[in-house]
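Workshop exercise sheet. Pairs work together: one partner reads the sequence aloud, the other fills in the structure field after running the prediction. Swap roles for the next sheet.
Pair: D.N. / O.F.
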Amino acid sequence: MERKTTPDYDLLIVGAGPAGYVAAIRAGQVGLKTALVERDHVGGMCLNWGCIPTKAMLESARLLERIRQARQFGIDGIDESKLRLNWGAARDRASRVVQRLAGNIEVYLGRYGVETIRGEAELLAPTTVRVGRRVIEAGRVILATGSRPAPLPAAVPPELALEIDGLFALRALPASVAVVGQGPNAMELALLLKMAGSVVTLVSPAATLLPMADPYLSTYALNRLRHQGVRVLLEAVPTGGTAGGILVGEERILCERVLNAARRRAVIPKVEFELTLDDGFVFTDDYLQAGHSTLFAVGDVNGRSATAHAASAQGLHAVNVIQGVRWKLDARRYPLNIYTFPEIAQVGLTEPEIQARGIDYRVHEYPLAANAKALAEGNAEGFIRLLAERRFGEVLGVQIVAAHATDMIAEAAAIIQAEGTVHDVARIAHAHPTVSEVFLEAGLAALGRPLHE
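Structure field:
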């Protein structure tokens, strides 16, 4: 095939999820002629069926739980026997949130001159893509095609199987659900279904509930989820179907539906040239290049991280590299957020990672039960753990369990990004009363000078 002498675009991006559309917007902002290829919905899995609808539904469940606690705050007159989560109405609210955000993305793409091309992409060469009958040449190509969950074990009866998009299409909630999977997604869905009124069993093939988290957090999360009424089976997989449920080993699990929250697999389009894979994901170097200087792979498709914010950060990183900014990727600075009650978040190195590097370190923990704002709000469950290098005090990792831990972790990420120390943390003035004061207290505790401990 004869190549065009002049590319159609400076940059062609395949996939309009958090990695792809963010890269497209940034490319348009810096003046690159950019096209974005998408076969389905702009926003990808996160916006349309994952992060956003799940968080909207979890907020409905959280509000229901807070209303049940009204008497603790001096509020009378609520008949708890009539309280319930209307699944259909909550789902409709989540859909409105999704539609608004999707519309916003379309506006942003148009504002910066990004052309959206609808269709299935096929990579003919590192800078040549076919969409339908159209063959497109680009100066650079970014592959941002995301991932999909691995299929449920064949032992699960097809009539019980349910994918996450199918869950949010239901008008009524199943009375009982087995969630099969591991990690934050499985944990959040199990808790959501339990708080919405289902009997829930989480069947995880992993030995720990959160394999990617610090073991301390994973143990806390397991105990907390069980305390909240979710039955959790670790190192377990469905081995067969039975009347009204599934078999896990010799045990019968009664359930109306089996929700797939399995580990995700890369979605890789048809490729007409050699592309190196690593465990089914596109292999990339520290600059997100996929074996060719003109081809990049960002987001879930490269297997480096499975979060939307990491995907977006990688999209921005790839555009920076295209512009000549040769920074190496540092994935340890991506936060891990788990939207449970309370929320769980971490950033930086875990204890096993620090130990594997032979670093001498100390752990400083501070409880939310000593924080004024947390007590005033009735959200005193939780703690902050600060992992710091012993000699100079560089902050290596931070873990938070708190009502708004997923918002608070950004401060920790900034400290780690700046290679800050516990001395820096102890000098940051925090407004009072705020839950974020736990950072200050943890920093002071690391220096042996805690104020409220």
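Discussion prompt: The domain at 342-446 is CATH 3.30.390.30 (Enolase-like; domain 1). What would you look at next?
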